[in-house]
Amino acid sequence: MRIDIHTHIMPENIPNYFQKFGYGEFIHLEHHCPGCAKMIKGDKVFREIEQNCWDPHVRMKEMDMTEVSQQVLSTIPVLFNYWAQPKHGEETARFFNDHIAACVVQHPERFIGLGTVPLQDIDLAIKEMERCVKELKMPGLEIGSNVNGKKLSDPYFTPFWQAAEALGCSIFVHPWEMMGQKDMSKYWLPWLVGMPAETSRAICSLIFGGVFHQFPKLKFAFAHGGGSFPFTIGRIKHGFDVRPDLVAIDNEVSPEKYLGHFWIDALVHDKNALEFVVQLLGEDKICMGSDYPFPLGEHCPGGLIADSNFSTATQEKLQYRNAMEWLR
């Protein structure tokens, strides 16, 4: 059995919110040939995508080809729409959540759904989270690594974390709006360098801001193997030790104490890196995740795990048991 916790999906037909609301960079699709579409961001072409981005039947065929039992579906981060007016963000979130929920209802043995919420307004975000968990029966949400520049440690989010913990809502953190993105546009560096750094910033913010400490029952998971965090934990801990006056100002617990507190996906693209994160965070905290259907993902989901030297029991944890635990 293999459960892929990191996959993205979008509806085949999205209302043209750019025209409807009259501003912004809302995404819709233009289907210009069979099985292909252009993502239009506002009124400009953003990227080309294929049918596996929206068609559950194509997805299931490809899942069968790569022996993936279930996919955890989440929206594409560019659809978070955190920059939008709150009511508009709520409307688009509801639309994407209803689509994911419908995919799960139609194919419950193959898909598990994560919702998205308008985090630019905490009250609306909590309202939609409650709908996702209670009405749509989703086990969790996908959120961005920051919201309009606010770090996840910002007190602004405290009521949201309280509500999520009370609901038992698992949280999948995906990098987006990477810091420094405008300064390193060449060579695809925002995706190669910015995303790992952005994920590390999110984890460090939650550690140093005391969110993990204040809400110990919240079940966080982070995309792309935790980004650069696992590979810079020595530097992070050293900074905490030598300059507590700068680092330990909101939480006096050493960052190393939180290793094994949260989950990451296994999307590290390197056998030695996978062995390292398993050793660092523990074999109970790594979940298979491929970033399907995008090019930076693992094209044969779980292949790195299968090719490892881990025991059968450890491989089973990484392939599906840990995902079941994270999603309750």
Secondary structure blueprint with pairings:
Blueprint lengths: L2 E6 L8 H5 L5 E7 L2 E6 L2 E7 L5 H10 L4 E5 L11 H21 L4 E5 L6 H14 L4 E5 L1 E2 L2 E2 L6 H10 L2 E5 L14 H20 L2 H4 L5 E3 L6 H14 L1 H4 L15 E3 L5 H11 L4 E2 L15 H4 L5 H15 L2
Parallel strand pairs: 1-5, 5-6, 6-7, 7-10, 10-11, 11-12, 12-13
Antiparallel strand pairs: 2-3, 3-4, 8-9
Helix pairs in contact: 3-4, 4-5
The CATH topology corresponds to TIM Barrel
Rg calc: 19 Å
The stretches of 5 or more residues where confidence is low (pLDDT under 50) are none
Q: What fraction of residues sit in β-strands?
A: 15-25%
Percent helix = 40-55%
Class computed from helices, strands and strand pairing: alpha/beta
The biggest sheet amounts to: 8 strands, parallel
Strand runs, count = 13
Short structural description:
By secondary structure, the protein is an alpha/beta fold.
Explain this structure to me?
By secondary structure, this protein is an alpha/beta fold. It has a single domain, classed as Alpha-Beta Barrel (TIM Barrel), CATH 3.20.20.140. The protein is built from twelve helices and 13 strands. The strands form three sheets. An eight-stranded parallel sheet has the order 1-5-6-7-10-11-12-13.
